[in-house]
Amino acid sequence: MDSHKSQLEDLPNELLSEILKNLDARDVFRAFYQVNSRFNQLIQLFQHLQLTFHMNSNNFLKTNDEIFSFYVHTLIISPWINFNLQNFPRVRRLRLNNPLPKVLEQLQPNVMPHLEHLSVFYTYNMYEMVILHENIFSNRFVNLKSCELYEKQTLISIPHWTQSPSIQVLKTEYVDSTIFKIILGACPNLCFFKFYLYPTNGMTTDIPLHNNLKHMIIEVQDADWYNDDNTISAFLESVPKLEQLEIHRRPDSQNMRGYIQDYDWLSSIIKHRLPILRRFRFYFHLLEEEKLMGCIDENIQIQIQSNFHDVHKGPYQAQIFIDRE
Prior knowledge:
Elements: H1 13-20, H2 25-32, H3 37-44, E1 51-55, H4 66-70, E2 72-77, E3 93-97, H5 101-106, E4 117-122, H6 127-136, E5 146-151, E6 169-175, H7 177-186, E7 192-197, E8 215-220, H8 225-237, E9 244-249, H9 256-261, H10 267-273, E10 279-286, H11 290-295, H12 298-311, E11 317-324
Parallel strand pairs: 1-2, 2-3, 3-4, 4-5, 5-6, 6-7, 7-8, 8-9, 9-10, 10-11
């Protein structure tokens, strides 16, 4: 009978790598770095993996962790944490949740030259975000492919943008016609764009054609269905190569029942603006308010479904989803 006991080191390198990359990055380095030359070599290969580190008040980096931080590719920062971004020179994916201004100041192209995916969620309007917007949309993060910029109060800032040809995915909050026009000009290779339509009484003209945008998601808090549709129509006119369109509407008026009875659910706009559209999804979010719930009962919802499918008979797939929030 074989009395040999299997040990971790008996596993092949491929299996060891699969195991280690699913462990917490800090624990991997503390447990296995400098154990032997084989484990050191495996860890050296981690530069091709995406080690994730969650920064919070309980796990600040210490000096002996510098080798660990060098191999972190995904960095997620909890709210209001003060730390030094220069400790993470190889980060590819960064997520900041309500960052301190002094942290945003550090977010510079020379500090994170390899950054490919950036997510910033912030509550308060900060001057540092203006600088960040300029860096993002002026191609200073030359490897940046996707960007999420979520702020609950104001429009995205546009000081002195040039172009960022590397950006392919953009998700943001409030966008009006002026911001929409500038973003399309600043991101010529943008293929996915998600944003919240900012209500406006005016409409910017001469929005340039953008032939690379393939998928767009627009969220609308309906104040005026007619004006919103005009804005959406102008936006769609500038993206004729769009293949997937998703609209989210959240009506907040008791008068919406009158709007939807004869509403064509953007069908005429789509047929006129988007000749190669393949998929259209309309999300009708109804607020859980007593007055609004009485306007759209179950029978009206059935009628909406029927009318939607009647008007969207074309070469593209169309679906409507009705829910209560």
